[in-house]
Input
Amino acid sequence: MAAVHAVAFNDHNLLQWLAEASDADLDALDFGTIGFDAAGVVCRYNRFESVAAGLSTGRVLGHPLFTVVAPCMNNFLVAQRFEDALASGDSLDATIDYVLTLRMRPVKVKLRLLAIAGASIRWVLVQRAV
Output
């Protein structure tokens, strides 16, 4: 596995790296990672995102991403893209400018939406301004 320090938000092979990453690997990243299954239930969540969002892993893991954890992403820009990719069997790798609004003042971020047909986990990556 690649060294964590070499992994960046915009890396071309990030989806492959995420599939093999341990929880410790995810926690060492300098951007948020949220992994969820085909039902939308969060199964991976890193320390960076927990601290930045103010949501503990216990509050997030095992809960539906788009209806309980981050309903501000339950729209055509984010959730619908995952649903469309899942329905069509297409891969998804899109980076969008976004504003998070749930439980916090509006925060401008970049979201990277990653999914590949047949993979058990889909990902929302969150890069906040430094």
